[in-house]
What does this fold into?
Amino acid sequence: MHTFHHLLVHAVFSTKNRDGCLTREIRGRLWPYLGGIAREHEMRALAVGGMADHVHILLSLPTTLSVAKAMQTLKANSSKWMHETFPELRQFSWQQGYGAFSIGVSGVEDTIRYIDTQEEHHHVRGFREELEAFLHKHGIIFEPAMLD
It folds into this structure.
């Protein structure tokens, strides 16, 4: 028998110190670039979005790539690109951690809609509250200091 898989991950990561440096112009270029990084590493980005201080990406991962390696690849390559493309952001970096949440096939459309409507969503709640809601929903135990 052949190997079949369909592993979907909704990943969330923020700029270091939640710096709001991802302007609309930068986001307009960064989101497609993240999709390109994913493609180059045999991932598929089904949706990329976020706000000035964080990114949401829905990924389909190959069997050969762990979630940790996928996040390292996306963050390292995009950080390098940010430095080269926007010299004024030479201090730019991503925060060390990330959130990664499994998504079932039945949740793909809702997740894509959620990622695509980040601006509307963040009129109601900030990044920290959003992350706390994800952690609670997925039953992840955490200390508030872990979110800093």
